[in-house]
Design a protein that fits this description.
By secondary structure, the chain is of the alpha/beta class.
């Protein structure tokens, strides 16, 4: 038994999973309306299928081509636990299931009765669960629709913090967690589940201990660790301090790639972290990476490009909350079901430092200007406004464009942007050009099932070679870095992506990198870690 009086550090490979009803939390599970529809049309359906025939799931998860499908990654011995979770969900979230039914009822009402005449009489026919939470409207083509007063939903019974919990575990391998959208987190001897709402300060206090020593006995008590889990909890700590972070004090600019779409930009005065997805340290791996210990002690700005689970990773954001001064997010669509407000979501889980930015709007500070640029595509042609590319100008001498998953389907847009912003020095460009179909992410929100051909044609896709090349032709960069590909092995549990050399995103990005290098533009597809100094 350790001496609890000593100061201890939280090990660098301790992970937090934010959970809602034991499912891995992402923005659509936090926002009340999308949460209701995911519970009803994703979680319950997957669990019901597993209960009826677990063998189908067991066989499917062994096939690489089925990775990311709606299959629970447990053995048949877990059927009773999944059945118990199913029954608990039906009982505890009865109001959410009724809310989902009401949304479908409202959709039917509008399709059947909103024919272009005044909607005033329809307000009395709105389902009781939705009255006071929606506004009805026509678009300019006389098509009926509705929007939520989302801020009111967060103050209602439909936002229930008792559904929130966290789990703590040691990560000992890059790909030892099942895919987040299809497998709930059951009890496990290696996990500690704690019924703590995401907004609680105790999460900050715990994760400060990755760098600052704390009292193990006090944190054990504050978290309410049960006696039979104290030994496991104590194994999450060490007396050994982590390596010291070496602050960047140069006169130039340093960028560090942390994997996927996560990039840290530093000068001696400011630090900016884009789309935080941070891996873990403390175990053997073949892939070098930067981890939390490679971040500065304070991050001035976190930039979020769009509201997908691999770019708004609550697992990382909650661990970093105590060192983040400001989070910059795209302004949203103000109540559209498919476009929940990102600022509202973050505010309600304990981030009170969120700044919304619109297209071509800037934030100015000493030595740095951050501008939001239009972001096209990657959202399956849905009306989603919560998306921005970011243009970062530092010391009036380096301009960086973070294009993330923006798909350059209309090159004339970025020609017009270039007329205002000029050339850039560096482009970070996403080229996951196949992408999943619309239903993979947004299926639970649809009022009716789409035809397969339609679904397959509407992808969550970034640039292909032609689109990326056109973007480079417009902005004339000196450096091009292909990123946001989900290549790193520690991202598989989020993105479910595994490429081969013949995969289209690899082929297309290879072509682009080769073309750039032949034209004296330094280019590279990033993987693992990368430091570039200017």
């Amino acid at each position: 038994m350790k001496n609890n009086k000593k100061e201890h550090y939280l090990k660098l490979n301790v992970a937090l999973e934010a959970l809602i009803d034991r499912w891995y939390a992402w923005p659509h599970l936090v926002s009340p309306a999308t949460s209701a529809m995911n519970i009803k049309n994703r979680h319950l359906k997957i669990m019901e299928s597993f209960i009826k025939n677990s063998k189908i799931h067991i066989a499917a998860v062994k096939k690489p081509e089925m990775l990311g499908g709606p299959f629970i990654n447990y053995g048949s011995d877990k059927v009773p636990e999944i059945e118990n979770l199913y029954n608990e969900t039906v009982e505890k979230r009865a109001n959410m299931l009724e809310f989902d039914d009401s949304i479908h009822e409202l959709n039917s009402l509008l399709q059947e009765e909103a024919k272009g005449y005044s909607m005033q009489t329809l307000y009395n026919k709105i389902p009781e669960k939705l009255k006071g939470y929606v506004e009805l409207y026509y678009d300019l083509n006389n098509q009926p629709n509705y929007r939520f007063f989302e801020a009111l939903l967060y103050k209602s019974e439909y936002y229930d913090e008792s559904s929130q919990s966290i789990s703590l575990q040691l990560i000992n391998a890059d790909n030892d967690r099942p895919f987040v959208l299809s497998t709930p987190r059951l009890d496990d001897p290696s996990l500690i589940h704690l019924d703590i709402p995401f907004k609680e300060d105790i999460i900050d206090e715990l994760f400060k201990m990755k760098r600052e020593p704390g009292n193990l006995e006090e944190i054990t008590s504050k978290l309410g660790i049960k006696s039979d889990q104290k030994e496991l909890f104590e194994s999450f700590f060490t007396n050994e301090p982590p390596p010291n972070y070496i602050k960047y004090n140069g006169n130039g600019i340093r960028t560090r790639y942390f994997g996927h779409a996560c990039v840290l930009v530093e000068t001696s005065e400011i630090s900016i972290l884009v789309d935080p997805v941070i891996s873990y340290d403390g175990y053997e791996t073949e892939v070098n990476r930067y981890t939390v210990n490679d971040l500065p002690e304070q991050i001035d700005y976190v930039l979020i490009t769009h509201n997908h689970q691999d770019h708004v990773l609550l697992e990382t954001l909650l661990q970093l909350r105590h060192i983040v001064k400001n989070i910059v997010v795209p302004s949203g669509g103000k109540g559209n079901l498919q476009d929940p407000n990102l600022k509202l979501m973050l505010n309600n889980i304990g981030f009170d430092n969120v700044i919304e930015l619109d297209d071509m709007e800037s934030i100015n500070m000493k030595g740095c200007m951050i501008t939001g640029l239009p972001f096209l595509g990657e959202h399956s042609d849905l009306d989603v406004r919560t998306k921005l590319c970011f243009h970062v100008e530092l010391h009036n001498k380096l301009k960086i464009l973070f294009a993330a998953d923006s798909c350059n389907i209309q090159p004339e847009l970025y020609t017009k942007v270039h007329n205002i912003m000029g050339d850039v020095d560096v482009i970070f460009l996403g080229m996951e050009c196949d992408g999943a179909p619309l239903s993979w992410l947004y299926g639970p929100l649809l009022s009716k099932k789409m035809d397969r051909d339609m679904d397959q044609s509407r992808r969550l896709a970034g640039c292909d070679y032609d689109q990326g090349n056109a973007l480079i032709d417009v902005f004339n960069p000196k450096n091009v870095f292909v990123y946001a590909m989900g290549l790193e092995p520690w991202l598989e549990f989020i993105s479910s992506i595994k490429y081969t050399d013949e995969s289209r995103p690899i082929v297309e990005s290879n072509r682009l990198v080769d073309k750039c290098n032949k034209n004296d533009i330094e280019a590279e597809r990033l993987f693992g870690e990368k430091t570039i100094e200017y």
